[in-house]
Design a protein that fits this description.
heterodimer, A: about 110 residues, alpha+beta, hypothetical protein PF0899 fold, 3-stranded mixed sheet, 3-stranded antiparallel sheet, about 25% helix, B: alpha/beta, 7-stranded parallel sheet, 8 strands
């Protein structure tokens, strides 16, 4: 259940950003959750709700988008979706792969007032 | 009003982990983050590793557990500096918890610091602590479906130790399937097949670890 620690870090960033923009109300937060991360969106949602209940952030919506794993082959320079966590190039079988997306855990947008 | 943010949620931890790593590098210290599910044999492997390498390398250990200091006592009885972290419920160690132990060690007199993470095949993979590399143990009693069920752990680890191979005749676990699945997720994984009960395969692991630490020390000294 590391979603609790993740929710805590998330709230720290939210409060920091709200202060920066002089915002009083948080409507929603949008997250990108990479397919490779071991985050269960329902658990994160649950932790976020518990931690915001009774605070100035109560009622804010957490919108989570799961980002598929995309790799780039350093050998044949092609981009491809990594299926079944197979980190090899489907074109040339090289294992010299760079992960382009799907390992991120980031906050991308907030709607505030 | 919509505000674009684009920030890594784990950024705060990763910053601390980087600071930890910078200090370890400065001290010429190799740090291994050892992970597995509960009962896979982390502490037993560590005891065996200490016995085999303590005349060659100066070791220190950080023990992470939710509760109790039993593991730290096992390590301390070997005469090795050890600090127990009790996370009090948290399922993983993070950069901050490791930093909090710094006052307890004399890093100038260590070559290898092993961080034994909380037993858990999910959460520790997500949090860097400042390690040079992650090593994980999978015991054959856990089954050969674990790589595909817990891909992040296998993807993040540089070393996989398949433990309890003496039990293979009694369990439905294909070691070939474990290796095949693990290498699919992480083609660069170094794999050892070991038994801490019969000592099978352990010599290869000790040699590999000793060489890794010596190379790392030499390359850090070269850069200084």
């Amino acid at each position: 259940m590391h979603e609790m620690s993740i929710a805590q870090s998330l709230l720290e960033i939210i409060r920091e950003e709200m202060a920066k923009h002089d915002a009083k109300v948080l409507r929603s937060v949008r997250l990108h959750i990479g397919q490779l991360t071991a985050i269960v969106p329902e658990s994160l949602s649950f932790c976020f709700e518990i931690m915001t209940n009774g605070t100035e952030l109560e009622g804010a919506k957490l919108v989570m988008e799961v980002i598929p794993l995309v790799g780039y082959c350093e050998s044949c320079k092609k981009e491809f979706e990594i299926e079944d966590y197979a980190f090899a190039c489907p074109y040339c079988q090289s294992t010299d792969i760079k992960t382009i997306s799907g390992d991120e855990l980031s906050i991308v947008e907030m709607e505030v007032e | 009003m919509k505000v674009s943010v684009v920030k890594n949620i784990l950024e705060a931890n990763e910053r601390i982990a980087q600071q930890n790593r910078a200090l370890f590098d400065e001290k010429g210290l190799t740090v291994m983050n050892l992970m597995s599910s509960p009962g896979a044999g982390k502490t037993t492997l560590l005891e065996k590793t200490i016995d085999a390498l303590k005349d060659h390398l100066r070791l220190g250990v950080i023990e992470g557990d939710i509760q109790s200091s039993q593991d730290a006592e096992r390590i301390a009885s070997k005469g090795i500096p050890v600090v127990q972290i009790n996370t009090g419920g948290a399922c993983h160690l993070d950069g901050n918890m490791i930093r909090d132990t710094f006052g307890e060690f004399d890093f100038d007199s260590l070559d290898l610091l092993v961080v034994e993470n909380v037993g858990n095949l999910v959460c520790p993979a997500e949090f860097k602590v400042g390690e040079d590399f992650k090593a994980m143990i999978l015991s054959v009693t856990e089954g050969d479906d674990k790589p595909s069920k817990y891909p992040l752990m296998f993807h993040e680890s540089s070393v996989l130790l398949i433990n309890k191979i003496d039990l293979l005749p009694y369990v439905d676990c294909s070691i070939e399937k474990v290796k095949e699945e693990a290498l699919k997720i992480n083609p660069h994984l170094t794999i050892f097949e070991i038994s801490c009960k019969t000592n099978e395969g352990l010599t290869q692991w000790f040699d590999w670890l000793r060489q890794f630490v010596e190379h790392r020390k030499a390359s850090l000294a070269g850069n200084a």
